[in-house]
């Protein structure tokens, strides 16, 4: 079930490892069509929260898609791109539909690109857009972008995110941008969640958090603006 135009309310997400809690009980409210940034350093629990969120929503029959930070994580270098597309359609129980394929590829600036090539026949930027296109096949209510710019040239990354945001706005898809880069999150998200030691320590509109951070971790983020200066 995809394309829901309702707010997603998730309560009590948590995760344990032997002897310790790595994600404390967490409640989330994700409005349809919203752009939310989840920021925090390495080890703060971002990946854990995302996996717990994906598992919960899929259990509830809500379509959610996850785009990893590197296209190599999603694409088999020995398989052509049209093979990946057919496999995604089969996994979703979708009949082949060239019109649907064309619309999604066009939305991501890939219209007219040949799919009868292996991934390395395309640039990394185009590969990442293709992985996002595969994710959008499911018409997800929530699209999780995991460190979406880390493997891309800044100009290409910005163009890719703009295309994704435009498509999400048309379809009502909620975007969750997961990153350690406060600058990226601040530029792209309407709302920011700050994760620290497995807890959401701040949840605020982007402008409010940048102007008046309340928690110590959020204050550290804002004070440094350039996240690369922090030990992460």
Summarize the structure.
38% of the residues lie in helices and 23% in strands. The chain is built from eight helices and eight strands. It has helices at 46-59, 81-92, 98-107, 124-136, 154-171, 182-188, 206-211, 216-224, and strands at 8-17, 20-30, 35-39, 64-67, 142-146, 174-179, 191-196, 199-205.
Keywords:
232 residues; alpha/beta; six-stranded mixed sheet; two-stranded antiparallel ribbon; 8 helices; 8 strands; 38% helix; disordered C terminus
Task: Give an overview of the whole structure.
Helix 4 (124-136) runs parallel beside helix 5. A hairpin with a 2-residue loop joins strand 1 (8-17) and strand 2. It is globular and about 50 Å long. A 6-stranded mixed sheet has the order 4-5-6-3-7-8, with helices on both faces. A two-stranded antiparallel ribbon has the order 1-2. It is built from 8 helices and 8 strands. The protein has 232 residues and is α/β, with parallel strands linked by helices. Residues 227-232 have low confidence and may be disordered.
């Amino acid at each position: 079930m995809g394309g829901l135009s309702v707010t997603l309310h998730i309560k009590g997400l948590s995760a344990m490892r032997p002897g310790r809690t790595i994600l404390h009980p967490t409640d989330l409210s994700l409005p349809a069509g919203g752009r939310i940034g989840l920021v925090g350093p390495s080890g703060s629990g971002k990946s854990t929260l995302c996996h717990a969120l994906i598992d919960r929503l899929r259990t509830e029959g809500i379509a959610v898609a996850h785009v990893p930070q590197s296209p190599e994580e999603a694409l088999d270098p020995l398989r052509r791109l049209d093979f990946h597309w057919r496999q995604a359609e089969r996994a979703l129980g979708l009949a082949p539909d060239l019109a649907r394929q064309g619309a999604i590829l066009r939305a991501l600036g890939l219209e007219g690109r040949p799919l009868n090539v292996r991934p390395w026949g395309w640039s990394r930027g185009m590969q990442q857009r293709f992985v996002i296109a595969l994710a959008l096949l499911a018409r997800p209510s929530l699209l999780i972008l995991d460190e979406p710019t880390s493997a891309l040239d800044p100009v290409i990354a910005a163009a890719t995110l703009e295309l994704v945001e435009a498509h999400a706005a048309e379809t009502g898809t909620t975007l969750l941008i997961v990153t350690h880069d406060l600058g990226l999150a601040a530029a792209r998200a309407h709302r920011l969640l700050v994760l620290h030691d497995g807890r959401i320590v701040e949840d605020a509109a982007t402008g409010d958090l940048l102007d008046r951070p309340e928690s110590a971790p959020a204050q550290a983020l804002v004070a440094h603006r350039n996240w690369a200066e922090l030990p992460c």
